[in-house]
Each structure stands twice: as C-alpha cells, then as structure tokens.
Amino acid sequence: QVQLVESGGGLVQAGGSLRLSCAASGRTFSGVYMAWFRQAPGKERKFVARIRWSSGSTAYVDSVKGRFTISKDNAKNTVFLQMNALKPEDTAVYYCAASQAAVVTAPGYNYWGQGTQVTVSS
C-alpha cells in the first residue's frame, strides 16, 4: 500500500506562485512514477506532470510547460510541484498519484492523495 498526502494549496492572484507537496509512505518507490493531476469543477481529472522516482525524468502537459516544475526529495519521500505564473484557468483540485507505468491518464494510477485546492484569482 502507498499513502499520499498533499499540502500547499491555497488562493493566489494571477501571476503568483504556489508550491505543492506530496508526502509518500508505505512502500519503496524505486520503480514508481509520481504524478500530479488536476480536476476543475464539472471537468474530468487531467494529467499535469510526472516524474520517475528512480531516474528523475519528467513529463508535462503542454499548458504548464515553462511555468510548472515537478521535483522530488528522495530522503523525504516527497514530490513537489512548483507552480509559477499562475493563471485563473489553473484553478482546480490538485491530486498526487502513483503508478508503476509511464501513463498520463488517471485510470493508470493506483494510488491517490486526498487533493488540495488551488484557486487563482484574476
């Protein structure tokens, strides 16, 4: 079993920054892909960014490239999402997830955190 706990969401003005954290526990992560998804009201949950625990290789959805950065701290079993130049359309509940496959769709992830709200005002 894997437990994921997100933190760091909040309210920020457009152009501002937030850093989300996802603390992971419960098993070893060497073969795992950690990802961030987001879900706006009435919309489906969508992929934002992914990092491979062992190599640190990353992937991003086009809409956040150059603004968001996913990273990890192996010693703390924590994944981060640094979000800069935030836009109102980034408003959503952000979820941390874990998978053993390099996929970008929600059904491919076995473990999920509870989510953290990010609201960007215009």
Notes on the protein architecture:
The structure is a single chain. The protein has 122 residues and is mostly beta strands. It is built from no helices and eleven strands. The chain has strands at 3-7, 10-13, 18-25, 33-39, 46-52, 58-60, 68-73, 78-83, 92-99, 111-112, 116-121. The strands form two sheets. Strands 2, 4, 5, 6, 9, 10 and 11 form a seven-stranded mixed sheet that branches. A hairpin with a 5-residue loop joins strand 5 and strand 6 (58-60). It starts with a strand and ends with a strand. The mean pLDDT is 94.
Tell me the layout of helices and strands:
Elements: E1 3-7, E2 10-13, E3 18-25, E4 33-39, E5 46-52, E6 58-60, E7 68-73, E8 78-83, E9 92-99, E10 111-112, E11 116-121
Parallel strand pairs: 2-11
Antiparallel strand pairs: 1-3, 3-8, 4-5, 4-9, 5-6, 7-8, 9-10, 9-11
